[in-house]
Amino acid sequence: MTSEKRIKTPSNKRGRNPQEPLAWHLWGVCFRNAVIFAAGVALVISFRQVPRIEAQQDQSDEKTTASQLRAIVGENFHIRLTEHFMVAYDGTYEDLRLPVGRLEGTYLAVVRFARACGITPKAVAGKLAIIFYDRFDDYARYARKMKMDPNRVAGFYHSANNIAAFVNAVHSPDIKPINDAIVDAERTLRDLAQRGHANDPRQDAIFLQQEIATWRSERDQIVERYNRFVLQHEAAHQVLFNVGVHRHHSNNPQWLIEGLACQFEVSQTGPEGKLIRVNQARLGDLRDALAVPVTRLNPGDRLRKEKLIPLVKLLTDDGLFVDTTQDHTTLYAQSWALVFYLHRNFPDAFAQFLRDGSQQGQGKTKAAFDLEHFTTAFGKPDQKFLENFLAWTLKLRFDPTATER
Questions:
Q1: Residue 175 near residue 223, CB atoms below 8 Å
Q2: pLDDT tens sequence across 375-384
Q3: Nearest to residue 132, comparing CAs of 63, 67, 85?
């Protein structure tokens, strides 16, 4: 599968509340600007025992993966092996530890989900390949080579080479204004110190010291959330394709590909593999599109449904995901919500839907087959279906202050 598509991370479109800490406002701005192009594409790792996928790890497979990575990044990168991944990185291992935990956590969550759907996870030959760039410029060169825009890409999985690549968010252009503010404040503080007023509140020295400490803390929190959503979403794509939930070189519907990856942006730790945790960021984006009040929705309130993608179009038009004129925030929120609704309300039918795959029927267009496949599994996607879907989704508990937002 070589088609490229676009996703947008959760947004914060409400503007900054005067009572709101600068960190959360800046984080919302960063998320709104972080657009990821994917090509077919930290979870808290549960300590509950997960059945292993029985496979003999052939060292020749690992050597092949290592050679593939070396051909891209050169000899100056470190290579680290985890249970399921081979990670090439050029930063410090300290920077890598948390992302690796998220990668493995995502892998285990996807495997649990696959088993819950009656899908026997395929054994992966060797390890799944990851590149973690420390410097943005190096990442940008690779992204452009893969036909991605590095200024709009925080990370991506490309099915053409089966590699997921990420950049250290500290060096992302979205974080640059915060880094610049810290550098400017430190320079001003040094100037004050040289003039002998470093401890003089009248010279704003104490205020600057407090601001620098606050900005550093806020930057760390922004980066943690920024990396978590990007890493877990793209790692979910990679694992879903490689363990057999999705199929390479097949007609997987894009709403399903993206909607399912969105489920793993948050920790899905259900021991039985069920998707139990609501993605508050995506739910918030859907509520924004529908103009749902933050307070309780009353029976007479009118939803702004015109912002939603018509359901049949969402199910049959994969081009939506590469259309730069689309509101991708709403598109991905709608895809997340539809997958969550189907999984929770039609668990057996949804599991069968995944097991059937999306292999185009003979003599039918992909759009016609996708619509027929969906209708056979869940019923006609008409107005009644839409009403039931939205009514159930909007009853989900929504917390606008959740850290995922």
A1: yes
A2: 999 999 999 9
A3: 85
